[in-house]
């Protein structure tokens, strides 16, 4: 007779082994590494948070300290490679294979380790893609998670940075895996039950709060006049003509500039109530002036942001909050909202090629993708209409039959023609192709494919790729906004002139924008202290952003 209980028997054996080191569900901090040696088997798939912002740092350090003779060759399936320990475990041989989505702070080191053969790469995913695989072929055997507090029964409160936790736990615990949580404190009653106790097997109270990175905070003082110019172009040349109300902003100073221009330049253009009212977005501090000015009506968030808790608690009409007043974030739900419910994504990248393909992978950095490929893709499963979506679809397919014509999501790449250290944004060939060749990958790590990109904005102007009628026009439209890069200097002057006459390319002057007007005085807030003032003192910037 067949045995259909292998997974459950394995789970029960692991729990029994771990229980010898615990009091019920609770483990002393000094015993965490020994407990990991009891519950983790060689070759296991392990999900370690490892989120975009929230890090299970105690559990990361404990995993690094295991006896490699007992725990080895792990397959790490985690969304974020953020802490040094996340890569140290590969150096020690604790882990061997990696499937991930984002590695911003470790992007240079992960490139070195991949090229050096220290890590066997499964794939660089989008968040939703990796989450989906948790339920199909990358289901974790063990999940190491972080929460704010636990009660004595083991119910968890994740606080404002819920992020990936419900998704990871759901996939693990309902497929006979083990969930091990570190918490900041143990309390009699949690403010709300975010993860029920029957989904959690072991808990440790950490000696200090888990690490949270202020990933989405941008100091207005660092915004340049060139970024203000590209923000003006975006607002007047894309937001206004399409009437984009539902959108997502990527991380960066260019989008922070847009947020800080809405209450000033956007107000001057008479756009309040017509654009930028509903967001799938982390609680960007740069949006505080737009919220206070009545621009922003609703925000659903992937995660929280350090220092924003009191402000969010005081603005429940804008943010999703629980009965305790804290933010309820959820990366999986917010990614779905950005993919299907938003009409536009606007973000930046490190390289764009002649077809409009973009990537954050270079020869020295492999930053991963995060959610950009989901935010920045045209969801072919979408069926509900909206004016921006229909208008973009009409531009892309003017000869189509209206009731059958698919709309298009606006996917905008915004940046300066030359980035940090004078490195050009535009290239003939993406470095991602060189990486794929070196590592023998079947698929190059492209962040957003060119056929999804609808607009490219630089200080040179806007290229509306929806209006291009063939591949050559598309290439020349891209070259036409590439400035004095090698790609830009190789433009066909006559064709670029024709594209400009058709408004495929719009220069600042074509939109009645004077580059000399791009002045920092246009920003609604020009410093972190200004943001605090706008918030009525509710925003508490992280220490590294305080200079007063």
Description:
There is one protein chain. This protein is α/β, with parallel strands linked by helices and 548 residues long. It folds into two domains: 21-211, Glutaconate Coenzyme A-transferase (3-Layer(aba) Sandwich); 220-529, 3-Layer(aba) Sandwich (Glutaconate Coenzyme A-transferase), CATH 3.40.1080. The chain is 31% helix and 16% strand. The protein is built from 19 helices and 22 strands. Helix 9 (253-268) links the parallel strand 13 and strand 14 (278-280). Helix 1 packs antiparallel against helix 2 (32-39), helix 8 packs across helix 9 and helix 16 crosses helix 18. The relative contact order is 0.11. The model has no long low-confidence stretch (mean pLDDT 95).
What secondary-structure arrangement, pairings included, does this model have?
Blueprint: H1 6-19, E1 22-23, E2 26-27, H2 32-39, E3 45-48, E4 54-55, H3 57-64, E5 74-77, H4 84-92, E6 95-100, H5 107-115, E7 120-124, H6 127-134, E8 142-151, E9 156-157, H7 165-173, E10 178-187, E11 202-205, E12 211-212, H8 225-242, E13 246-249, H9 253-268, E14 278-280, H10 288-292, E15 298-300, H11 309-313, H12 331-341, E16 344-347, E17 351-352, E18 358-359, H13 372-375, H14 387-396, E19 410-414, H15 431-438, E20 455-458, E21 461-464, H16 471-480, H17 486-489, H18 493-501, E22 505-506, H19 528-534
Parallel strand pairs: 2-11, 3-5, 3-8, 5-6, 6-7, 8-10, 10-11, 13-14, 13-16, 14-15, 16-19, 19-20
Antiparallel strand pairs: 1-2, 4-12, 8-9, 17-18, 20-21, 21-22
Helix pairs in contact: 1-2, 3-4, 8-9, 16-18
